[in-house]
């Protein structure tokens, strides 16, 4: 005697997951493991790393502030020389301005970099320090009164200051402004409508992070987060019973990506981030996140339909054979009906995608990694 339930689940279930993986790929979303789509529909908390996700990877340099014997151009020359071999977003912003001013880079030696703080390097027989306020405080440098006032002004404006010290004396700072990625405000509004808790995680100071969170309409944020603290904060959220999805693109995000139940990165992110993340958004479009959540819900619906298409024929076979003594042809007919219904339900999303989706330009290739 045949019972369709097992065969429908074993054949149509995996087929349905494979179809949704194919649909997501056609929409520019790489899902490395089909199981993550099932976990995704349970997510109730999404944590955005600020830089490179909610904001553009490279900030905009607004102004160079000086407070000592060095001019703006001299400060830019020494800082660009110290940062010339770095690939992080702040270095890129400074180097971009240096190239625009056609500055010739001085030779740099003895570079030491502290993740989340800054770097120390030797340039033209001078020791250059470039980094955050915490880096300068950690190095026990005295802050001039003008820089303290400028820090307060930048905090109120939601900007960031990257300090430069030359031979252990603070010589000035670079004022940076984050550029918000278009479209994310609407996406965050839609996520909140779904009842999802949104968090921002940033290594920036409290006031700029708070200002950014307010601009997006987000109540929860973590400020002044060091790279090694990100995974711990994700774990704290999980310990409160939350199912966490972490979205990040930096080297510093890799441990947090590994720790979260669902991890998402963007095309062009650091190699370690794209290697660690379970899902990669190839087009970097914010609406891909909504599409992903919709696919997860649709998969759940289809899996329920597949289950029903296996249960009903099985009940009919058992009832028909034992209650009204129907024979094998009836059981075969029910079995085939259940299998057909289950497989058809599994294939229908791909058929519908092929028929009704808008034509998209063919992708010439998928380049996930970049030099980190």
How many beta strands in the DSSP annotation? 13
Low-confidence stretches: 359-372
Major sheet summary line: 7 strands, mixed
Kindly report how far apart the N and C termini lie. 59 Å
Helix-strand makeup class: alpha/beta
Domain tally: 3
Here the CATH topology of the largest domain equals Rossmann fold
As a percent range, the share of strand residues is 15-25%
* The CATH superfamily title of the largest domain: HAD superfamily/HAD-like
Strand order of the largest sheet: 1-13-12-11-2-9-10
- CATH C-level class of the largest domain is Alpha Beta
Secondary-structure element series: HEHEEHHEEEHHEEHEHEHEHEHEHH
Named at the architecture level, the CATH assignment of the largest domain is 3-Layer(aba) Sandwich
Principal-axes shape call: elongated
Number of helices: 13
Percent of residues in helical segments? 40-55%
What is Rg? Answer: 27 Å
What would your notes on this structure say?
The protein has helices at residues 4-26, 35-40, 72-83, 89-100, 133-138, 145-157, 184-193, 206-216, 230-239, 254-259, 271-276, 287-323, 328-356, and strands spanning 29-31, 45-49, 60-66, 108-114, 118-123, 126-131, 160-166, 169-177, 197-201, 220-222, 244-247, 262-266, 279-281. The protein is α/β, with parallel strands linked by helices and 372 residues long. It folds into three domains: 1-28 and 294-358, no CATH class; 30-56 and 182-282, HAD superfamily/HAD-like (Rossmann fold, 3-Layer(aba) Sandwich), CATH 3.40.50; 60-177, Calcium-transporting ATPase, cytoplasmic domain N, CATH 3.40.1110.10. A hairpin with a 2-residue loop joins strand 5 (118-123) and strand 6 (126-131). Helix 6 packs parallel to helix 8 (206-216). The termini are far apart. Residues 359-372 have low confidence and may be disordered.
């Amino acid at each position: 005697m045949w019972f369709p339930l097992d065969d429908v689940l074993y054949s149509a279930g995996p087929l349905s997951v494979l179809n949704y993986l194919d649909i997501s790929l056609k929409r520019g979303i790489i899902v490395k493991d089909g199981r993550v789509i099932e976990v995704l529909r349970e997510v109730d908390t999404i944590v955005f790393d600020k830089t490179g996700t909610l904001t553009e990877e490279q900030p905009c340099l607004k102004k160079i502030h000086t407070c000592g014997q060095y001019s703006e151009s001299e400060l830019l020359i020494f800082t660009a020389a110290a940062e010339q071999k770095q690939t992080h977003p702040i270095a890129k912003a400074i180097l971009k301005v240096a190239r625009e001013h056609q500055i010739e880079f001085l030779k740099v030696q003895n570079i030491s970099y502290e993740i989340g703080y800054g770097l120390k390097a030797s340039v033209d027989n001078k020791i250059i320090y470039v980094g955050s306020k915490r880096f300068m405080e950690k190095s026990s440098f005295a802050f001039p009164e003008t820089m303290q006032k400028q820090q307060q002004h930048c905090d109120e404006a939601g900007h960031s200051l990257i300090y430069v010290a030359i031979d252990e004396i603070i010589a000035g700072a670079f004022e940076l402004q984050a550029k918000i990625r278009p479209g994310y405000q609407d996406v965050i509004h839609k996520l909140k409508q779904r009842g999802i808790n949104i968090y921002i995680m940033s290594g920036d100071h409290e006031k700029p992070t708070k200002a950014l969170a307010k601009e997006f309409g987000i109540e929860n944020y973590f400020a002044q987060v060091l790279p090694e603290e990100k995974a711990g904060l994700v774990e704290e959220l999980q310990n409160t019973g939350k199912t966490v999805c972490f979205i990040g693109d930096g080297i510093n995000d890799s441990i947090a990506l590994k720790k979260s139940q669902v991890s998402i990165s963007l095309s062009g992110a650091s190699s370690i981030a794209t290697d660690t993340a379970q899902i990669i958004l190839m087009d970097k479009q914010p609406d891909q996140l909504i599409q992903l959540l919709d696919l997860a819900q649709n998969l759940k619906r289809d899996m329920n339909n597949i289950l029903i298409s296996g249960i009903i024929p099985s009940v009919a076979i058992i009832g028909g054979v034992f209650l009204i003594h129907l024979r094998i042809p009836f059981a075969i007919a029910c079995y085939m009906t259940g299998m057909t219904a289950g497989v058809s339900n599994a294939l229908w999303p791909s058929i519908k995608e092929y028929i009704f989706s808008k034509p998209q330009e063919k992708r010439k290739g998928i380049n996930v990694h970049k030099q980190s």
